[in-house]
Amino acid sequence: MATDFKSLPVIDISPLLLKCDDPDMAEDPGVIQVVKQLDRACRDAGFFYVIGHGISEDLIKKVREITREFFMLPYDEKLKIKMTPAAGYS
Questions:
Q1: pLDDT digit string (tens) for 33-79?
Q2: Most buried of the four, 28, 49, 51, 69, by CB within 10 Å?
Q3: Helix, strand, coil % (nearest 5) of the chain?
Q4: Into how many domains does the chain fold?
């Protein structure tokens, strides 16, 4: 059960990215710390804000812009790309 919290957990995932090609990454202290932070945020707040992901601010802005444009489309236009309920799962 989620508890009261006063701020959104902010988690720097850069240690995961630095070790993503390392077969022993699960033993890295930085990776362990990030995993513990993710676990705690999911249990306490239910969500979190990620930093250190390496995605440029320009790309984030572009995705937000395209998302807004999509949701401004008429309903019938959005339905043209409707996915089946279990799309991607087999």
A1: 999 999 999 999 999 999 999 999 999 999 999 999 999 999 999 98
A2: 28
A3: 50, 5, 40
A4: 1
